[in-house]
Amino acid sequence: MVYQREIFINPAVTRQWVSIKVFAVPAEVDDQAALAAMIADVRYRDSYAGTGDTDMVDKHGPYWLAAITPQTFTVATPAAVETVIRTWSGYYTPWPAADRDAMDREVYPRIQHATVIYQLPDIRAKAQHDWGEVVGSDGFHEYVMIDRAAGELALMVASDD
């Protein structure tokens, strides 16, 4: 897999944000191998806590990286994912039009066009690292959307800090 870019939506009116890390996924790479390659990629090693490269060894969001394997992920339906994200984004004040437009452009089409969506369930009880409570007090929503027609794997994290 080849990393392409990150899309970051960060409304100024709330603590919420959405990160989408986009990878090109070759057709011959099956889902489990794609998830394994994503987990092994340095860009997955992100605490999402603004610490820069200092935590890019053993953490992912609020979790110890070692606790996450391809088998940790579960399949999610597009309708369920969209409901979670739309509900989560409405927790606080309404987002500015530009951020809502970015969600309509970058998030929801990826959910709708995905061949398959994998969800990282909440594994805090067994895998939260020593300061993992800093990220995602209102939820750490992680989805991996694989779109075979587009040759794309999109890692989406919707959370807060």
TrEMBL record:
Protein name (Swiss-Prot/TrEMBL): Uncharacterized protein
Species of origin: Mycolicibacterium aromaticivorans JS19b1 = JCM 16368
